[in-house]
Amino acid sequence: MMKILEDCTSCAACEPECPNGAISHDEAADLFVIDPMRCTECVGEHDEPQCVEVCPLDCIVPDPARAETRDQLEAKHARLHAD
Ligand code: SF4
Asked: How far is 77 from 39, CA to CA, in rounded Å?
């Protein structure tokens, strides 16, 4: 999955681009955060992570602590869009 670094200035460019509704604003920290249960690195929807494409500060990066295989990301995408 991807994570948003503390450099985030809450510009909100990424939030509407996520096909999984994984991005939300953390009011307390005043930065945007990514829900690990919903981020598929855009697998199943786009060739590239859409949040990374639009972030003007390049502060969205892969999270090495939560690395997932392509199969895991595809399975997550299937679960999220099962309905
Ligand atoms: Fe959403 Fe894709 Fe960014 Fe993950 S990589 S948070 S699925 S836009």
From this structure: 8
Count how many domains the chain has. Answer: 1
Which among 53, 52, 50 is positioned nearest to 61, based on CA atoms?
52
Distance 44 CA to ligand 1 centre (A): 11
Q: Say if residue 77's pLDDT is above 80.
A: yes
Query: Mean per-residue pLDDT for 52-58?
Result: 97
Ligand 1 close to Cβ of residue 59 (< 6 A):
no
The answer, yes or no, to whether any atom of ligand 1 lies below 6 A from the CB of 41, is yes
CATH number of the domain within which 31 lies: 3.30.70.20
